[in-house]
Amino acid sequence: MSDLNFIKGATVTATDVRKSWTRILQGVKASHQPAFVFTNNTPEAVVLSYDTYQAMAAELEEARREKLGNQMLDDLQQIAELEDQPMSQMQADESGVFRPADNR
Hints:
Elements: E1 10-13, H1 14-31, E2 35-39, E3 42-47, H2 50-82, E4 90-92, E5 98-100
Parallel strand pairs: 1-2
Antiparallel strand pairs: 2-3, 4-5
């Protein structure tokens, strides 16, 4: 196996993984870049450091929550339009309960 290039992630074979797992893992951890595992020139897996995985999972969860929040706002707007009622401003209090916003 040649030296791994982790600029945008290393490409390794499944055989490399079997023979050089420790070295691949050290490279992934040190570079914070993935290693792409191929079998017969077909991508099969990606090896990430745990820190990188956690950061990606947190970013994905944040995006999921934002999408869900936007969908909820769209749904509330549609309900308000169907009932011919204006939407009122709301804000969460310290315990996370939504109450009418103070418009001072």
